[in-house]
């Protein structure tokens, strides 16, 4: 095959794996904005309807780590096409659901179908591109990872407002059919890929422990803050079940000859450190992604559209810089690019930690722009450094573990910041309230000024003093919340700053065509 035809085929393979990856990532967030509509349509309770999100995340998290084993069991191309088919069919069923129980059941199947798409797509891209171009491959993969969370709420909101919530699921049909065609036409299993041998013992206990441990953990992370964590017997029980299952899983898998999830690959130092950095990096990144819209809409009074305008430029810059970061890894030591991304991420969160209730639009957008520039260097460079010394035949094993920790990092990060926000708001409220007494001269001055302002608007109504106190209390609540956001942003920035020092314990990845990448 000529070099030109190889290049064309490489980009067709890239398209074949990126289409299903993008729709799968879209569906992790596309239903968020439609929950109220689903709740009203299916006559569900406010807490019950959140299982539409949780069921998908749990099923998704269970399949991701076992996707390498499933690919070896049935062949990677066959597994990928089956995953796309299940995802697409269950999407249609979600759109046609008439009860809450039905949509939760179909969302489970949708999550099971989508779970294998990310890790298999990443493994295929890492193998398809020459070793010295793996940075470019991860830049392309990163476009899907970054674009999905940006487009998901936008597309979900548009379809829900202009049609009906059911179309957020129906829209997957044409995309799924396209993905099936592309996968069937352009993907194939490489000759070096390990396949299941006849008579090979199936690791049933590993499957059970993995399913139980990851499923229970995802529910704990998704429902913990809502149920007040360990004050809830349900959350406590699931946390214990998850901890016991996952600890037992590690010990069992290390001794099994054909494990579902092979932890032995973590003997590779760079791969092990890279997974830890990915977990903590997405812990901080996803936490901040959740915090910024909450701050803008909850405290600053921004509409969803204005909040989207703040987030938009950073997202677009991330898309632009993904391939740039990938190309730079061919010429520069990816560890320096990774360190640069971490430092800029830390600085962007430091800027956010200085937000107050009087910041302008440009200040908020600037911090997000910094983050949009930094994340491509973090994601692409980390992937290159982590996988640089992983053999091609081990990609099916390495990629699921890497993607699992990335997803869990995001889930832990969201759970952490929502809990920290609630706790620190209570703390700052109690501290600020100490000075809110009639004996405080500052309080008396503020009270009289606000009372006079209300009197000019309303006149001397009977409950003017009560209205003044209520307004002061609302101001106190907003200030306490703003300080809690500052604490949360600062904690996320500190994580990126700490990770900077981990970079230099990873092996330097080769650069260019002539250096020794692992084939």
How would you sum up this structure, described in words?
This protein is an all-alpha fold. The chain is built from 19 helices and no strands. Helix 13 packs parallel to helix 17 (395-433). It starts with a helix and ends in a 20-residue tail after the last helix. Residues 1-5 have low confidence and may be disordered.
Q: How does the helix and strand content classify structurally?
A: mainly alpha
Tally of extended strands? 0
Distance between the termini: 20 Å
Q: How would a textbook summarize the main sheet?
A: none
Query: Helical content, roughly?
Result: over 70%
Strand content: under 5%
Low-confidence stretches: 1-5
Overall geometry comes to globular
Mean pLDDT: 80
Our count of helices gives 19
Rounded Rg: 25 Å
The ordered string of helix (H) and strand (E) elements is HHHHHHHHHHHHHHHHHHH
Outline:
This protein is mainly alpha-helical and about 525 residues long. About 75% of the residues lie in helices and about 0% in strands.
SSE map:
Blueprint: H1 3-29, H2 35-42, H3 46-49, H4 51-74, H5 76-96, H6 100-114, H7 117-128, H8 134-162, H9 167-170, H10 172-186, H11 204-223, H12 233-255, H13 269-298, H14 304-328, H15 334-353, H16 361-387, H17 395-433, H18 441-458, H19 464-499
Helix pairs in contact: 1-7, 1-8, 1-10, 4-5, 4-6, 4-7, 4-11, 4-17, 5-6, 5-10, 7-8, 7-17, 8-14, 8-16, 11-12, 13-14, 13-15, 13-16, 13-17, 13-19, 14-16, 15-16, 15-19, 17-19, 18-19
